[in-house]
Every structure is written in structure tokens, then in C-alpha cells.
Design goal:
Blueprint (H helix, E strand, L loop, with lengths): L8 E5 L4 H12 L3 E6 L2 H13 L3 E6 L5 H14 L5 E4 L16 H29 L2 E8 L10 H21 L4 E8 L2 E2 L1 H4 L10 E2 H14 L3 E3 L1 H12 L1 H24 L1
This protein binds NADP nicotinamide-adenine-dinucleotide phosphate.
The site of NADP nicotinamide-adenine-dinucleotide phosphate has 31 residues, from helix 1, strand 5 and helix 6.
Length: about 270
Amino acid sequence: MTGRLQGRTVVLTGASSGIGAEAARKLARLGATVCLLARREDDLEIIRAEIAAAGGTAHTYAVDLADPEAAEAVAARLLAEHPRIDALVNNAGRSIRRPITDSLDRVHDYERTMAINYFGAVRLTLALVPRFLEQGHGHVVVSSSMSTQVPIPLFSAYLASKAALESFTRSLTAELGHQGVTSTVVYFPMVRTEMSGATSIYQAMPMLSADKAANWLVKAVVDKPTRVTSLPGAMGELGMATLPGVITKVSQPLFRRMDRSLARRTKR
Ligand SMILES: NC(=O)c1ccc[n+]([C@@H]2O[C@H](COP(=O)([O-])OP(=O)(O)OC[C@H]3O[C@@H](n4cnc5c(N)ncnc54)[C@H](OP(=O)(O)O)[C@@H]3O)[C@@H](O)[C@H]2O)c1
């Protein structure tokens, strides 16, 4: 695939760590000019320097995308500094694992998660849409989760924000696909990063590496499929489309058992 993105510019959010950092290196290796967005300026700079040392081109934009003014300002800078933007990868995100019964007085959990996972991504996308229409092409990728494909407990704020983003992204293609604006939803399974590391019992869970997960984002940018999914995720979707009651009922005790088993293995 070397050189397949030569001459293209890709805006990538959440590029300071995890899947986004690995994807930045891989996209640059394929020839793309990458615009790296996240809050941690020093980490972005390390990745930019690595890409430059390998002969690639990267630009850093330190920004809190949950801050509406900052997000709009960075979008204006991107448009001013890059005459061509081929793809936007909305990968920045935060996760919260908390039972609904512990969230009864915590609506702010839902608001904060939406602020970055949904509104941050929507704001940036809306700012770039006029450029995509002008160019006659533009591809939007969103990092979502396999857990929106099946009913998973304990992540209500996180999964609701991701489901909203998926729906927005589908609308984007439904409305503007004929004018060249396309999109991919990437349904990641669990990936070993700072995000998943925040839950101690997940230490015992087998996960995809950030390096392998980044290949999913690269595939989304290069091949522009409608979705990138695991087989279990696709089967989960099929099950929910055909037998939602059964799948929801059968999966509940399985998840409780899985959490108990992970907790036991983590303690060992
Ligand atoms: N890890 C998993 O198991 C998993 C599974 C399914 C989906 N995903 C999704 O994959 C994406 C990448 O996650 P990851 O696992 O690579 O986690 P990560 O290492 O924690 O990366 C999250 C990225 O988002 C950025 N970010 C967070 N809040 C931000 C804000 N307010 N403004 C700008 N940037 C912000 C972070 O940078 P700064 O802290 O520097 O701002 C970081 O670069 C996320 O959307 C996540 O929901 C992950």
C-alpha cells in the first residue's frame, strides 16, 4: 500500500496516544500529510517528529475538542492552512464505565462524554463539509465500538455518544454521498490502550493491540468501506436485527459472568 495516500491530507483527532498515534504513523508512511489533533501538545510533537524523521509530513494542532470555541478555531486554521483536505478521522474520545444506578445524580457524565465523542466530532465535520463539497470529495471516518452492535452493560454514557455519532455519520452519507461525501464507521473491539487500561479487570481480557487497531483506521481511509467491523460484531448486529429480545436476554448473564471471571483472574 506504500504511497497510496501520496498527495492526500488527512485530519486525525485523538492522535496523541493509542490507536490514533499508531494510525498517524501508518497514514504518514502511506504518503499522507497528517494533521494531528489532541490536547497533549508534547505527545503530538513527539509523533510529528517521528513522522518527519521517517520522511513524512505531519502538523500538530493542540486543542480541546470538547470546547466549542477551540474546536471552531482549529477547524478554521485547518481550512486556512490546507488547501486540500481529503479525509477527517474522528477518533478522539473518552470512555466512562459506570453502572446506571451509580449515575443517577451524574448527568454530567453523559454531557461530558457527548461533548467530546459526539459534539466535538460533529463540530469539526460540519466545518469541513463545505470544503468537501467544493472539492467534490471528502471521507469521514469515525472510531466507534463493537459495543454499539450488541447490548452491553455499564457504558451507557459512552455508548449513547458513539451511537449518536454513528447515526450522524450515516445521515452525512445519505444526504451528501452523491456529492462525494462518504463515510466509514469503525466498530473496534476492545483495544489495549490508555482508555481500556483505566478499567483494572480488563488487564485479564484478550484485546487487539493499538498497532492492529490502527490498521482498521487505515483501511477506512484508503478503501472507504461503509463500515469496518469484527465478525462477532457483525453477527451481533444480525442477531439484534432479527432476534433482539432473545439476544438481549441471553447476553445479560453472560456479561455478569464475564466480569466476575475477569475480576478473579485480575486478582491472581
Ligand atoms: N480502546 C478500546 O478498547 C476502544 C474500543 C472501541 C472504541 N475505541 C475508540 O477508539 C478511539 C481511540 O481511543 P484509544 O483506545 O486509542 O484511547 P486513548 O489512547 O485514550 O486515546 C484517546 C485520544 O482522544 C484524545 N482526546 C480525548 N479527549 C479529547 C479532547 N477533549 N480534545 C481533543 N482530544 C481528545 C486523547 O488525546 P489528549 O488526551 O491528548 O487530548 C487521545 O489522543 C476512541 O474514540 C475510543 O472511543 C476504543
